[in-house]
Amino acid sequence: MRLLLSILSCFIYTAASAQIDSTLLRRKPRDTSALLMNMDAVYNRPFLTVGKMPVALGGYAEANWQHMGTDGVTEGHQFQMRRLTLFVASGITRRLRFLSEIEFEDGTKEINIEFAAVDMELHPLFNLRGGIVMNPIGSFNQNHDGPKWEFVDRPVSATQMLPATWSNVGFGAYGKQYKKSWVVAWEGYVTNGFNDAIINNALGRTSLPAAKQWPDRFEESFNGVPMVTLKGAVKHRKVAEVGVSYMAGIYNRFQDEGMTLDVKRPVKVWAVDANTTIGATNTFLTGEWAWVHVDVPATYSQQYGNRQQGGFLDIVQPVYKGRVAGFDRSVINVACRLEYTDWNVGRFEQTGGNIADEFMSIVPAISWRPGPLSVIRLNYRYNLQRDLLGNPASRTAGFQAGFSSYF
Questions:
Q1: In terms of CATH, what superfamily is 33-406?
Q2: How confident is the model at residue 57 (pLDDT cuts 50, 70, 90)?
Q3: Which residues lie below 8 Å from residue 97, measured CB to CB, with a gap of 6+?
Q4: Using one digit for the tens of pLDDT, what is the confidence trace for 17-32?
Q5: Nearest to 372 by CA among 315, 318, 336
Q6: Cβ pair 307, 345 in contact under 8 A
Q7: Exposed, middle or buried: residue 123 (CB in 10 Å: 0-12, 13-18, 19+)?
Q8: Would you list the domain boundaries of the chain?
């Protein structure tokens, strides 16, 4: 009886709160008065506020179905809840604000704090940021929200070569300046960095994303050497946005209690990203390309590459705008993603033959956006992947369908 009364009380309280709050809830508008860039993605999201409360809430969810096969072998129909992400933002004072992003992946198989930082606005060209920051390498790492993309999968180069949603504890500064149709922006951070999981992993290859699995990276540095991330970008309203970024640090533990264990082994990453809209057809193009250099010890076999490179190009063409199934602001797009990743750039020392270990993909897609905050998408994915020795490529193909929506 007591349990029943408790449940009934909670239900009545919830219903009453919903009745009151429904008149107070409002969608916090996004800033559309300025030229937005990839670096603005962290705040360029829809939030809900309640009355005059200083805290705003938001998030997005995405789920999908897929039926994929590799060389004729398939696991059949698969349903996946890829991720649920929550945003909490607060205007602490007029020039001091806080934002956090917490992501639950694969039904809470992984729970990650991707961003939790305080920003102090001092001048348009110089502002401070500290906490868990998202390292701005390339464009996808910052601008990764599912509802912004026409494709179910994230780019392979951004997730399996670069560590997508790569964030660390640290501090830095950023700035942006407008002049008519031009805007220039910059960011720079010092944070905790990589660890030796880059080469000590179960994948059997050099892998920057493997460093994300070290559970202590938000409370200590693996070797005491800060990682540096720098990015500069320029945008013209009618032309394009182009960004150049650089990330560098030491990934190995080279000393312990004053005793030298190894030389310092650096990892360096360069990336170029660009996006534009072709005015005559309203075709949207976006992509990035990155180069990775890792100082791999000579004692490791050549399956662990010193150099990697890869990137992607997305082409999105709106084909219809108008009313669909009662949604007045619908947009139907056709799209295509082209991908390439080489996890081991170079040649075998013994034979001079090319080291393959590469991936190629084409993903045609069609998407329906019933509103600006949601997307329903259908993809056909076709992958070719060659092993280290360059044997005939394995072929993976299949359909994917799903949705992603802010809330």
A1: Porin (2.40.160.10)
A2: very high
A3: 89, 90, 91, 118, 119, 121
A4: 333 233 334 555 444 3
A5: 318
A6: yes
A7: exposed
A8: 33-406
